[in-house]
Amino acid sequence: MIFLLLLSLLACHKQIDIDEKYKIAFDYIKSSQAKNNYFNKDYSIMVSDSVVFMEISSFFDEIKIMKNKNEGFDQEQLLDSLLYYDKTNYFKTFSLRGLKNLSTSNKSKLILFFSKPVGNILMAELIYNYNSFRSYRKITTLNRSIMFLFYFDNNNNIEKVLTTEVQNE
After folding, report:
1. Which pLDDT score, from 0 to 100, does residue 12 have?
2. 8 Å CB contact between 51 and 99
3. 3-class secondary-structure state, position 5
4. Which positions of the chain have pLDDT values less than 50?
C-alpha cells in the first residue's frame, strides 16, 4: 500500500515537470517573433488537447547547421540518428485535457499542437486552421506551419529553440 502511494506521488511529480515544459514552451511561442513573422499578425492561440507525434527529422537542416558550427559530423549519420529517434519515440495521438487551459482563445484559427516530451526535448507545431477542422491530420494536410524544437536543461529552462517552416502534403 505504501509502495503504491509512493509510486503515485512520483508519477504526479513527473507529470508536473512535463506540464511545466508545455507551459514554458507555450509562453515562448506566444511571444515569439517567429510566430508573428510567419503569420504576419499577432493572432491569439488555441492549444489543442491532442498530443501528437512529430518527426524530429523535420529539423534536419536546422540541426545540421547547429552541429556544423560545433563539430565535424557525417550528414548520413545525423539523418540516421534522427530517423532512429523518430522510430523509437513514435506514439499514437492521445488527449491531455490540461493543455487547453493554456489557450489565449478558444475560437482562434491559429492552433498549437504539442508532441510528448522525450527527455529534455519537446516539439510543437503552430498552424492556421483554414477550414475549422478538428483533427491534426486534417488541419496539417496541404497546409503550411511552423514547428518548434525545444531543448530544456535539467531545471526545465529553455537551452535552445530551433524553428522550421513545414509545407505539409
Report:
1. 42
2. yes
3. helix
4. 1-18
Q: Where do we find the cell 493554456?
A: 102
Do the Cβ atoms of 25 and 114 come closer than 8 Å?
yes
Q: Is the CA virtual torsion 97, 89, 24, 162 positive or negative? A: negative
Please identify which residue in the block is written with the cell numbers 539523418: 79
Measured CA angle at 45 (ends 40, 48), to 5 deg: 135
Q: What is the pTM of this model?
A: 0.78
CB atoms within 10 A of CB 130: 10
Dihedrals phi, psi of 156, to nearest 5 degrees: 65, 25
What value does the CA radius of gyration of the chain take, rounded to a whole number of Å?
Answer: 17
pLDDT value for 40: 67
Burial (CB count within 10 angstroms: exposed 0-12, middle 13-18, buried 19+), residue 54 = buried
Burial of 160 (0-12, 13-18, 19+ CB in 10 A): exposed
Residue corresponding to grid cell 563539430 = 71
In angstroms, the CA 7 to CA 29 distance is: 33
The candidate with the shortest Cα–Cα distance to 50, out of 110, 16, 92, is 92
